[in-house]
Amino acid sequence: MQFPEETSVDVIKRLRRLEGQIRGLQRMVEEGSECREIVTQLAAAKGALDRVGFKLMSSAMSQQTEDTNMDELEKLFLKLS
User: What fold is seen in the domain 5-80?
Assistant: First the structure.
């Protein structure tokens, strides 16, 4: 399924931001940051990744056509939860 350009641009932007968060986490581990701080940042990154998935699913569901396999969309949605 192709996504509208607006969705693709937004998702790429979110993924790049997430990439920065992950690099920051790597740095925190390398520098010996406190576990609490690392876990807090991990939770933030996980939340950001979840939001990317929901953005994609929202776009897919809003584009549904007669050819859309709703069972497949439902399975994809459940993978996110």
Answer: Methane Monooxygenase Hydroxylase; Chain G, domain 1 (1.20.58)
DSSP string for 39-75: HHHHHHHHHHHHHHHHHHHHHHHHT--TT--HHHHHH
Q: Where are the domains of the chain?
A: 5-80
Q: Are 28 and 37 in contact (CB under 8 A)?
A: yes
Q: Are 45 and 17 in contact (CB under 8 A)?
A: no
Tokens in use for 18? Answer: 């997430």
Confidence of residue 65 (pLDDT cuts 50, 70, 90): low
Residue type, 66: E
pLDDT at 62 over 90: no
pLDDT above 70: residue 67: no
CA distance 59 to 63: 6
Structure-model confidence comparison of residues 72 and 26, the more confident one: 26
